[in-house]
Amino acid sequence: MAITIVVGNFKGGVGKTKVSVMASWELAFERNKKVLLVDMDPQGNASTLIARSTGVTEINASIFDGFKNGSLKECIVPLTDNLHMIPAQVSFKNLPKFLYANVKEEIDQVTYLKRLLDPIRDDYDYIFIDVPPTISDFSDNAMMAADYVLIILQAQELSLEGAETYVKYLQFMADNYDADIQVVGVLPVLLRPGGRVDVATIERATELFGEENVLKNVVKHQERLKAWDVTGITNKDQHDNKAHQVFIDVVDEMLEKLKHFEEAGKYEWVD
């Protein structure tokens, strides 16, 4: 059964979508895992980037169709043998209206995605969920469907506050809806490697979340990562290789943490 991970922070523009896409990519291509990327953001940036990177020029499916039809199976877009996605389109912004009009009980509203994912979990090793940076039906559903959260921390004060709020909201979801979700780690994303603000923010994050919870690997600013937004993800030269290695290292550290949780008896480890 797939281990499901939501990538989150309640501050926009911190790199959640890029990390969701790249973690999915490296697990599929470099670690030979079967991965499903679920785009829960109506802007569909994750869908656009990963489709462009795999040569998909037209996306007709939408996660909102799955919500309305009560099944996600017809929404799955196979990109490669190991990498699939469930794309989002702008119409998905109407999710709150749909839930309030069609789902009576509050607990059923926040667990709707979980119910839809359960029938397809056995088809994958990992499921990543990309969500908007808001306290909303999107984030509630993602949290209730996920086993773990990877919190993205861009090295600035508002991002740190967003991460702190995210952890507090996880506790709220646990207290009110019995959410069973564990923080697998806090991933620093640096604006300027070696910058004083970056270093100070990571030090504060270590104090807040604990040294054992802040990943040792960090995502440093690289022009190649920005270029991929235009060209799609490539692997043609040393600059591509360097950018890929950053996320391979992040994924490997995350896998070690997941294995540690499995050894504590929570989830089956995918070897």
What is the count of distinct domains?
1
> How far apart are the termini?
12 Å
The level of helicity is: 40-55%
What integer is the average pLDDT?
91
Poorly predicted ranges: 267-271
CATH topology value: Rossmann fold
Strand content: 5-15%
The tally of beta strands, per DSSP, is: 7
Could you give me the name of the CATH homologous superfamily? Answer: P-loop containing nucleotide triphosphate hydrolases
Number of helices: 11
CATH architecture: 3-Layer(aba) Sandwich
How are the secondary structure elements laid out?
Blueprint: E1 3-8, H1 16-29, E2 35-39, H2 45-53, H3 63-69, E3 77-78, E4 83-86, H4 95-102, H5 106-110, H6 112-117, E5 126-130, H7 137-145, E6 148-154, H8 157-177, E7 182-189, H9 196-209, H10 223-231, H11 238-263
Parallel strand pairs: 1-5, 1-6, 2-4, 2-5, 6-7
Antiparallel strand pairs: 3-4
Helix pairs in contact: 1-2, 1-11
Feature tags:
single chain; 271 residues; alpha/beta; Rossmann fold; seven-stranded mixed sheet; 7 strands; AAA_dom; DNA_Partitioning_ATPase; P-loop_NTPase; ParA family protein
